[in-house]
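We were asked to recover a plausible sequence for a given structure. The inputs and outputs are reproduced exactly as logged, with field labels preserved.

PROBLEM: sequence recovery
POSITIONS: 274
GIVEN STRUCTURE:
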């Protein structure tokens, strides 16, 4: 994913890779289509955390985990005729007090989502306040980016309880991953849906390109899978509640096979009422 930024006030624009949605099973009767209407306001809390450990050969294991971040979000002035959802960031907090302090000036910052009628997010913009520190900007960007790629869109067909569909898209983060999200409609009450998710990621290539033209590593093994459940309302752009966790192990080696890099990664996205 490529971010563009000219100045703090212009913010960052993060294009989101397109999705392909395929209906596998329409589910039981009664069935009807789900359309993301998006009206009124919505307030919800987003929490994210990532655990990353890394080991090179027999060296000591290094921990690159990021502390849990809780980010209150308010979607305001939503209009069903527009594909843009305006978000306002509340008072963010972290398990790391230093990050919490750095996040304080970001309160009131703006963000935006571009969404289709099927609920697919096609772009993310973040416009932090001028006073927001770089560490806070990076944490907010990572949290919202995680949330985007743990969301779900709806099939363009009538569905009922038990319906199953897949959402395919690429995730670009060091290595290009083909992500397949399998969604199962567990229950439905009008526009309110409970959806179980299974996520599977596989690398598109057998090599990892290192930054700054530092060469490449062979991908010896790569496993990233996850599950979760989201409760959503088609009238609202963000999940009402739920949690999705994705994790796995990877192993890379240099072309000569003299160095082996192992990683163990897990990330969680959680939505709760404010």
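RECOVERED SEQUENCE:
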């Amino acid at each position: 994913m490529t971010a563009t930024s000219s100045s703090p006030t212009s913010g960052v624009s993060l294009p989101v890779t397109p999705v392909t949605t395929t209906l596998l099973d329409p589910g039981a009767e009664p069935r009807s289509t789900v359309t993301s209407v998006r009206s009124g306001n919505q307030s919800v809390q987003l929490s994210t955390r990532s655990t990353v450990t890394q080991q090179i050969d027999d060296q000591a294991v290094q921990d690159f985990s990021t502390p849990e971040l809780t980010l209150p979000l308010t979607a305001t002035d939503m209009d069903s005729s527009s594909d843009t959802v305006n978000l306002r960031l509340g008072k963010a907090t972290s398990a790391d007090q230093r990050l919490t302090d750095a996040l304080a000036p970001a309160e009131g910052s703006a963000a935006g989502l571009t969404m289709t009628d099927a609920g697919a997010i096609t772009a993310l913009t973040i416009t932090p306040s001028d006073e927001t520190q770089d560490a806070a900007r990076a944490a907010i960007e990572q949290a919202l980016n995680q949330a985007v790629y743990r969301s779900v869109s709806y099939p363009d067909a009538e569905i009922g309880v038990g319906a199953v569909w897949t959402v395919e898209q690429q995730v670009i983060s060091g290595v290009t991953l083909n992500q397949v999200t399998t969604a199962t409609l567990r229950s439905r009450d009008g526009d309110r849906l409970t959806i179980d998710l299974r996520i599977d990621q596989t690398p598109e290539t057998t090599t990892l390109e290192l930054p700054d033209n530092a060469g490449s590593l062979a991908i010896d093994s790569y496993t990233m899978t996850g599950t979760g459940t989201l409760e959503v309302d088609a009238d609202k752009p963000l999940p009402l509640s739920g949690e999705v966790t994705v994790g796995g192990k990877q192993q890379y080696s240099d072309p000569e096979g003299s160095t082996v890099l192992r990683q163990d990664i897990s990330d969680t996205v959680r939505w709760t009422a404010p």
